[in-house]
Amino acid sequence: LVNCIQRRVSEAARPYVHFTLTSFDVVDSATAWRLKQAALQVIYVAMAVYGWLAWRPESGTAGFAPRRWTLRPQLAAGLAVLALSAITAPLLGRYTEAVAPLADALGTWASVAATWMLARRVLESWIWWIAIDAGLALLFLSQELAFTAALYLAYAFLAIAGWRAWRSALEPAA
């Protein structure tokens, strides 16, 4: 919607179109992505319940203890993300108004994998989040969604902070 309107207004007004139509863009996107987002929210709620159960004191995990993954499980997770993206990207392209179905599928499935890793206290989940958030920031920037791109860039910086904090928790006390 924003891009269509920007093409029809004067050059001087174009920078303001995105700012004033952001809410309409959100509503339009929400309508187009309703089913995908609903399914994704169900997955995130399930992950939140799993994380809550796994991190409770009654679960037998005393205190905070991040763990490391070797390359093998990370490659397995990456291959699962690629396979699921290859399956869902054509569906997104056909049944939604996705501008970049493959990038959206990759971002979605990588986010699900990173959320699962985070719930399992895997240090490398933060590296995944840095890459995901930076990649999505570039995707949104390419779609002229500057505010959304800035938000995802901020998420990337938060992921850097999370990675540093967990990494320091793994280092032996001096």
Structural features, described:
The protein is mostly helical. It is globular and about 60 Å long. The model has no long low-confidence stretch (mean pLDDT 81). Helices cover 78% and strands 0% of the residues. It is built from seven helices and no strands. The longest helix has 25 residues, at 71-95. The protein has helices at 2-8, 14-32, 34-55, 71-95, 101-119, 125-142, 146-170.
What descriptors fit this protein?
mainly alpha; 0% strand; 174 residues; single chain; 7 helices
Q: How much of the polypeptide forms β-strand, as a percent range?
A: under 5%
What multimeric state do the chains show? single chain
- Low-pLDDT regions: none
Ends apart, CA distance between termini: 56 Å
Count of runs of 4 or more consecutive helical residues: 7
How would the global form be characterised?
globular
Order of helices and strands: HHHHHHH
Largest sheet: none
Number of strands: 0
Structural class: mainly alpha
Mean pLDDT: 81
The Cα radius of gyration reads 19 Å
Helix content: over 70%
